[in-house]
């Protein structure tokens, strides 16, 4: 798992240099919220469509080389951002390349984690991985923010591309895992949806889709407006919050390892729901306490990620893990697409302003509770 940790940490560092800024970068360059939601729809649609193709690729070249194959698509994604304001063609290349990258990367990476980690120590291993990722990506936002605000995106692109290529080195020298051939067609998605088992876990995946849209595409824009559209300040904010989260995670992780993951998830999901409420209220009225709430929310989000992911992985085995991953994919990204469409329809009928955008955050109060729906030891 060590090489996998190192690979994931470097990739996360690169994506944190740029990734968290993409929605706000688009917004800063006069892309409307509706276009940004269409961008989100494009990514998830591409992910769902290409996932069965990724499985075919894994069958032919293995997990390791499928992970390596994701790198060129992220580089295309980074390059597209450079020219996004010159031609709308690059906007479409942006969501397409990101969707393909995510499909190649996440399906392969999650399969690697499932096959490499042990059930008994999975919470500890995932917690360690999450802590390393947060630690190494803590400084990335401030670097990315300073470059976007005071230098240029082009220089950030060069650094990001170099580090992304470097991240492949530990993966290249690692051994590949031999998997049995997996068959999955696009029509099999229907079978996964019709399947009457795992109903509670599916609700959890739906909630993940809502959280993904709010935390990745809506909330960063609100924070960006709140800090007067300054990339450096936004980057500094994320860096400080990440560093505090790392320290807190080291202490909390010991507690998580000792008690039921489900109990931790139950408490954390309720606290995350409260944090969405406080985010919305404090943003509407404006308050310095927003920083404290964001720090709290970031810590809780990481705890939810550790426990929820651990339970999900424990509910899989070497025979069913790919169908479990694809069940999560269709429900999580399908929800993200549906919610984006609903929000687009609403925004077409009302004024697209800061207050109305902030009200959307109240959806997070409900979705956070849904994260706790997943059932332990419910095999897919």
CATH class: Mainly Alpha
The main sheet comes to: none
> From the alpha-carbon coordinates, what is the Rg to the nearest angstrom?
20 Å
Oligomer state of the chains in this structure: single chain
Distance between the termini: 24 Å
Can you describe this structure?
The protein is built from 15 helices and no strands. Helix 3 (33-82) crosses helix 13. With 380 residues, it is an all-alpha fold.
Overview features:
380 residues; mainly alpha; Growth Hormone, Chain: A; 15 helices; 81% helix
Summarize the structure.
The protein is mostly helical and 380 residues long. The protein has helices at 2-18, 22-28, 33-82, 88-116, 122-137, 140-150, 153-172, 188-194, 199-226, 231-258, 261-285, 289-314, 321-349, 354-359, 363-370.
Summarize the topology.
Layout: H1 2-18, H2 22-28, H3 33-82, H4 88-116, H5 122-137, H6 140-150, H7 153-172, H8 188-194, H9 199-226, H10 231-258, H11 261-285, H12 289-314, H13 321-349, H14 354-359, H15 363-370
Helix pairs in contact: 1-5, 1-6, 1-7, 3-4, 3-7, 3-13, 4-13, 5-10, 5-12, 6-10, 9-13, 9-15, 10-12, 11-12, 11-15
